Predict the structure.
Amino acid sequence: MIERYVFGTPLPTGSTVLSIPPEPAGRLPGCLLCLPDIRTSNDRWLYPMDADTAVYGLGEMPRGINKRGWHYVTNNTDESHHGENKLSYYGAHNFLLVKGGACCMDFGVFIDFPGKVYYDIGYTDHERLEFHTETPDYELYFITGDDPDDICRQFRQLIGRSYIPPKWAFGFAQSRWGYKTADDVREVVRQYRRNDLPLDMVCLDIDYMQDYADFTINRERFPDLAALAADLRSQGVRLVPILDAGVRIDPEDPTCTEGLERGYFCTKEDGSPFVAAVWPGKAYFADFLRPEVRAWFGNRYKTLTDCGIEGFWNDMNEPALFYSPERLKAFLDDLAKLQDTDNIAQEAFFSRVVGGAMGLMNSPADYASFYHEVDGKRVRHDQVHNLYGGNMTRAAGEALQTLRPGRRTLLYSRSSFIGSHRYGGIWLGDNHSAWEQLLANIQLMPSVQMCGFLYTGADLCGFSEDTTPDLALRWLEFGLFTPLMRNHSAAGTREQEYFRFAEQLPAIREMLKLRYALLPFLYSEFMKAALEDTAYFRPLAFGFPEDPMAQEVQDQLLLGDGVMLAPVYTQNAAGRYVYLPEPMRLYRLRSAADHDAEMLPAGHHYVRCALGEVLLFVRPGHAVPLTAPAPCTAKLQETDFTFLACPDAAGSARYRMYSDDGETSDYDVPAHWHTWTVE
């Protein structure tokens, strides 16, 4: 059951699709009446927690699958220094699920609010969950159900169907900030094909643009983007270019001049266009909260779709701000006062020099200095900050339906809010080449999927700093299961295209081929989740809600109904401990054709897993189809399967498969479904 509560005068966010009448003012959700210590106000809610209470959700937030023990702020942030001590990342996903403890039943809470929401989940007081909004104008949805899966299913129905990409988007993507020319791109593809490594996408970072300006192409570096796209397309490879939120200030750029003439950019208090610097230098920022601006900006993608581009990734759309001219001038003026000082006091050095420089980026004062137009009213940006990036995704998603009618287009974004999941996927931002970041990738997947973002993944091997061959391979062993599978790295870091790791290349080759052998299964599980409002990845506790040990597990995931994953994520490990809530068949995969299997009873096990091996646990009565690997999705055949199966007590296993053309949006066709029975 979903109950809706309205406080103050909420600003519409577009997060939900169901129309639910609000409950009477002053009413408390019925299931909470059993909590003697609950306290509420217009902008603050407090819940008592028992020792066994677990809290799930919040999407793209640090720490474990169970979010208890830390405090968080949903405030979309350009965050290059990831770590468990952070309070905010790139997304605002205000859905949490409280399981077990003081209340008589599990429940979900969605706070529909465009600004900051603060959570204290057992941080100040281990027995208390508290959240409050920045202002008392919001909607709250309270969801109860039979179990955590049922609660999540109702929430997904509330917010609408998740974005579905084309099937080729489930192939492997190679990316790097540093592919500066068309020849660089061709060489990457040549090396992947030469080394017999599957590949479906090459992503273009900002270097393909002219002066880093959106909807432009550097003709010296990429003299004929359309010809490049067509050539790679004939090899089964798509180009996926980046687009940023800031519009370069350039009187020769039609995006700039049109937006300025039409009054489509965000403004300062005096009505003049807001200016801040990002990659192209000084830039304007489209007011994506206005439908006409979204339509205009989205139609600009035609510049690239006319070149044969079928996929995009939106970046820097929190929006990231390097500096505003006003703040930069104030900082430089302050430094000038210190330039004749021979011995700067430490307090002044750290606060004025170091702190002043760092404070230029993404300044809260800058976010509070410009405005949007919402339903004819001016709204200060910091009050609706979390809506910005998602509405850039919405602009592209809506326009691409017109620019490419009847065809699916790949689209994923960095910044997001619940509601933008209907228009595109997300990737998990600028992570690090570190083992802890691999674990974070594992733990984030079920959390973001609870919030509707099914098409997601992290930068395999890590974006910043230098990866190592063993980390690259272990990350691949998990990443081959994520819907978005992309290797991406920063300029100045170790080149980490998979063909560069000579010693590990044979194992890498088999892991990439395994992805493609599993791709019909992975695509089918994704489509089940999208069409039936279920989850692709789930916490172990959701599949076994009555098992207290399953709730303790923070590094194993359920994939669909029939598979459990237990990735290795520590350096030099030859295996790991695994908890099985029920008997399962373990398949230890070295390739699509090379594996061993053993039946394991319920309980705790140490399971060996060498580099270049994947642990796949199949639940009783379930099966996993495998097809022959292929160099790209276009060459996959999906008619002849072998099965990794765990028969039930009757000696059989089943798999319900979804298969379509992967390009059109005719999803709801019974003929797309087929059930295989394995004896």
User: Anything to note?
Assistant: The first helix runs from residue 148 to 159. DSSP finds 15 helices and 39 strands in the chain. The mean pLDDT is 95. The CA atoms of residues 454 and 679 lie 32 Å apart.
